[in-house]
Here is the input.
Amino acid sequence: MTAKKTYVTVFLTVLVIWLSLALLVTAQEQQSGPQATLQESGAGQHQELGQLRPQGTGAGQGPGQGPGLRQGQGLRQGQGPAAGPNFFDFLLRPKFITMLVIAAVALVLLLTKRMNSRLKILILAVSTFLYGISANLGLKVFSGFSMHPSPICAATKSILYGFRMPMIVTLAVIIFLTLVGPKLFCSYVCPVGAIQELIAMLADKLKIRRRKPSFRLSQTVRVLIFIAFIFLSWTAIIHTVSGNRTVALSLYDYINAFHGYEISLQPTLLDNLFHFLPFILTLFFAFFTYRPFCYFVCPIGLITNVIEQIGIFRVVKKKDACTDCLSCAAKSPCPAVAEILKDAVLVPDCFACTVCTGGCNQDLLKFGIKSN
Ligand code: SF4
Ligand code: SF4
Here is the structure.
């Protein structure tokens, strides 16, 4: 078996385990009766994800309120299930509608070769503001833009708490935009991705030389973190079942850069460290390597990397005309271009930065539909 086949097999196995666990917990949650409805809330309020089980006691800490083991907060027995919003109620909220609009605008600009630095900065700044910063302002006009669940929470908390509607809608939007491509959620909508992209542009302006780590290295780290997360979550679920109380452990709580957008003081110094450090480190390393959090850590990056292989729109080259001068690959910040030129089956993440499409001296790379 080639290394590539081994990688695909391992990855798909992990993905299937993730899905099975999430579905298992979802089924268990449904059987256990009362469920709290996840409500969108302002920055710093994750507790809605912690209030999921009737057996728990005391004030449970919700995901995001500092990492570690948490007890779910109990709902009173006999309380009927809350009739929560359905899929379309969530989808039609300003947050998701604007996400789809921003992605559509970006796609049109990419396909028509009109995406330039100014428009790119504008779109990335809007996404950073809307989906990262605005909820901190406490303004009513931005009340529908809470980041929660963050993309990472949507993918990982479903294992611990089962699929909930906000998670399902978040994942559906991410998957849809990735299927349309080129990785449209990560490239132009995600606030953590957007700020890294803006820093990459700034680093170029400042002529800071960035390193390009091999995809094999970043992907190995990203997959290992994901496997460790699944293993730890599984032990937490076993503990939950045997101990008859919700105990949730998400490894990503320790390394989730999205928490950095919740600008609120945490109870202890250690909590503050875990809360803000991943974001600060992400910003710092983004000056020296392209999208470090996306390539090395983010589980959404991992999942969308698989989906983008079948995405409709992507970077394509005009066959036969390429002279293999590799000037585009040399200019690009990512490890994807060389694989795109080779027509590889598994291409590293492309964040539609437009460097390679603008970097071919003969204009042979463009955003379009792959012909075969
Ligand atoms: S890989 Fe993760 S952090 Fe990066 S853009 Fe995608 S969702 Fe955001
Ligand atoms: S250089 Fe090309 S392949 Fe790499 S992220 Fe940018 S657009 Fe995608």
Observations:
- Residues 3-31 form the longest helix (29 residues).
- The chain has two domains: 1-30+86-250+286-313, 314-369.
- Confidence is low (pLDDT under 50) at residues 34-81.
- The pocket of iron/sulfur cluster (ligand 2) is lined by residues 315, 332, 334, 336-337, 340, 350-357 (CB under 6 Å).
